Known about the structure:
The chain is α/β, with parallel strands linked by helices. The chain has one domain: 2-Layer Sandwich (Transcription Regulator spoIIAA). About 35% of the residues lie in helices and about 30% in strands. The protein is built from three helices and four strands; from the N terminus they run ββαβαβα. It has helices spanning about 20-30, 50-60, 70-80, and strands at about 1-5, 10-15, 40-50, 65. It has a four-stranded mixed sheet, covered by helices on one side. Helix 2 links the parallel strand 3 and strand 4. Helix 1 (about 20-30) packs parallel to helix 2. The longest helix is centred in the first third of the chain and has 11 residues, at about 20-30. The chain starts with a strand and ends with a helix. The model has no long low-confidence stretch (mean pLDDT about 90).
Amino acid sequence: MTIEVKDGVLACSGTLSVEDAEVLLAQLAHVAQPGGEDGPRADLAGCGHVHAACLQVLMAAGVRVTAWPADAALAAWLGAALAQD
């Protein structure tokens, strides 16, 4: 798993495992902008797997996804859970 911040967007790649949930939460705290209407943003294009614990962190943080995973099934699963306007 790789989680890094690029231009204020959290970029995730590889496998987000259960062990990554705390790291993900900490990184989201750094990219969240107080008073921001859109909430933190995340680029999930490089993700191949997202553990449910990490999905819960993304959901609780109100993440706005800027790029979805290439895997159609994963993108559909995440898109349904992270429904965005």
